[in-house]
Design goal:
Length: about 230
Amino acid sequence: MPIDWSRLAAPFPADDIEWKPGATTRDKKKGLAMAYITARAVQERLDEVFTPGGWKNEFRAGPEGGVICRIYFKNDDGDWVWREDGADNTDVEAVKGGLSNAMKRAGAALGIGRYLYKLPQAWVPLDERGRFAQTPRIPREFLPAGSSAPAPANRQREAAPRPTGGRPERDEPRRGAPRNEPPRKETPRNEPRSESRESSSRPTPRAGQKRVIRRVGGQDVGGDGSNRPPARPF
């Protein structure tokens, strides 16, 4: 099966492209957008074109430090041929960064992602940490057919739907609307009034009895109407 070299050099979707700032302005407010692909994207492209068993790679130390990556693949005749390139170790995770960059450069020797070097220069605003404040845009001619570049992050936030009708986001009661207050307890109007303790504690005469007040020894002594004599003082 002949090698599809055009497939090797095909552009990647915008979501597969990563960015980092290169040169910056003096005030550090803008940076030159540098596009790159990951080593994983290179491996996936090699799988698509050569199949997973149709390529392999190896690494070795460079003559003056750094790492060199060699990519082997089978040509149309079934013979193993190779392309290679190298990169210096990085400041963060030196060995891992060097291997990854060497892999990407060796892939570029096969045409993978090489078109990114042709992107027009773009100065993009930076945030306080020195990162891009919005995703740089890729011209349509550098994207796969039928795809479009994503809108910058700040524009996407502006395009987010907002509440309609000017309603507040919080759940607040409107003017004139009843509030969730506990119901008030109303006292029935025809409810009889309770008697005082004094009147309730007073003994009620039995039917047929009369209340008799007798005067004994200059004092009033109450009687209950019975035949018993009133109590005398000592």
